[in-house]
Amino acid sequence: MSTPDSATLEAVNIDQDAGNFSYAEDYAHDAGYGLTEDTIDYISNVKGEAEWIREFRKKALKTFHDKPMPTNWASKDLENIIFQDIRYYLSKGQTPTRSWDEVPDDVKETFERLGIPEKERKFLAGVEAQFDSEAAYSNVKEELEKQGVIFVNSTEGLREHPELFRKWFGKVIPTGDNKFSALNSAVFSGGSFIYVPPGVKVAHPLQAYFRINAENFGQFERTLIIVDEGAEVTYMEGCTAPKFETATLHSAVVELVAMKDAKIQYITVQNWSNNVFNLVTKRGMAHENAEIRWIDCNIGSRLTMKYPGVIMKGRKARGEVISIALANDGQHQDTGAKMIHAADETTSNIVAKSISVGEGRSTYRGQVHIPKHLKGCKNNTECDALLINSNSRTDTYPAITVRGNQHATQHEASVSQVSEDQIFYMKQRGLSEGEAMSLSVNGFVNDLVREFPMEYSVELKRLIDMEMEGSVG
Amino acid sequence: MSDSLSIQNLHASVDGNEILKGLSLEIPKGEVHAIMGPNGSGKSTLSKVLAGHEDYEVTEGTALMDGEDLLALEIDERSRAGFFLAFQYPHEIPGVSNANFLRAALQARLPKGEEIDAVGFYKEMYEKMDALSMDRKFTGRFVNDGFSGGEKKRNEILQMMMLEPKYAVLDETDSGLDIDALKIVAEGVNRMRSPERGFLVITHYQRLLDYIVPDVVHVMFDGQIVKTGDKSLALELEEKGYDWVTEELAVSA
Q: H-helix or E-strand containing A114?
């Protein structure tokens, strides 16, 4: 391939540095480095938590220590996480603010530089923006409050509404689900708690922006969304992070509960900087005739391991995962989906597309489970991989366990490459190599990008452009 | 002459095999030249070499576009400088709509920070599509994806009309076209003819030249131009076949 032209280089330099800023660390609460029972006491004390939460955390810590690293099936890169070198709790020491005026200036500046548009801030139904481990800004629009919708951070949710959240907290994803869900359960901080009462259809998507801003600081947000009978909500989560020289750990747990006839759509654009370990457990439980959709896009991080799942617990429940992964040099996107059919006539759909560039590596892991005693379950799985040059690597591990003969499953997989001739054709029309690449890649994921709300699809296209232009050489 | 596409003594090889063996050709602005020749004479190679395809190595000779060294430019730079190739086999770009592709190609020609005017763009595109009898739905279809042969060729002409090159090479644009499609494509090219633009029409058959009437006809054989004449040369070739040229060459040698 030819070398990128100067305009491309210039664009790359500007774009790559755009997220490369951080502020002087000024944290009122800092649990120090490492993880012991003292760390947990410190977190619980600062948060003024109920005793059952402290116990929950301590039990989880034990589970975390007992569980082995999943390096028998996952990347050996996990061994590079030094748990004792991580700070597990940081906070601005502020309680969540209700109005924009109360938000500290440097936090506002961060949002400014992240390019969150002014009108979007005003327009959004509610904003729960996490700055490090506590919500810096939390504003639920009046109309939502009138409807009885609760949109708070996890600390406030557990403190103010234990009757609502305790019932489901840690139930969809048990502490011992995996080593990192145990870690999160021990040290969680931040994240959103949402409750939508029966029949309420939240008109605007609820949105949260996450950002890590302290070196060696692990972010362990905990999100629980409960949507009651016949209610509907869309939640959007977007991430960017400044670059640091040493690895950063991010390990979230997100639990969704969709009661009878409820609908939840959870949308993520993950763009952590390339030194972040992003080890996330996301799962939803869909009751009768409920629908849970995970729309997930992973562009950043050093290693992402994330397999959003849906347990279809009630008859006619539906689960869906739409997934885009882009792995550039030095990145491993290990993503997929988990569909557990646990009732008759449940339907699941998985569409996953991955792009591997340069030394980047993509892995798809899917698990579809349909037991013998059920009737009329359906699954459709499609996974397509696009390789941008010969060094790229892609692996597909679909595990579809279907027992009984009253089900319908369908599985398609493809691996393709952007051909030299296609790039030649596009360049002959005047596009630079980078532009041609990003147009091809955007074309490949086009049908999935359309599933994202407008502003996210625009942002996604821009992120892909940046990634592709940086990859040409 | 600087107002021309001027090719002198061009030699080019692919995988060590020389295909172009000292080809010389000059297309002044405002003229339409045709190259005819039997299969394997190097016609398509010439088009790819001029466009800058990396499989071909130029070992000798020059190609100047209005005095500018075409061979020194990257593929996309040649395009932006005003060189256009209508492909014999246009490539598919799945997931990218025709409108988006054209827009990106036009955008690539603007200075940094400048955006193309969307309203004007669509207006112009629709006008040109009408001239080529293309359905409006075409804008939303993916580039050449699932197109018939005729649709692909029309799409090439649409791109040419939108990009308004200084010099255009049409590589066997007539192949795979029925007579109605051929007329539409020829009409599109004829609309583009202007004192400011030069064309090189590569074809195996005389038929296309009934509709795109050339100023000059060249006959290519074994990597060189072996005969040059006016449009009557095409008719003569059609009548006597390519053997006539090769026999004549054998005699003169």
A: helix A105-114
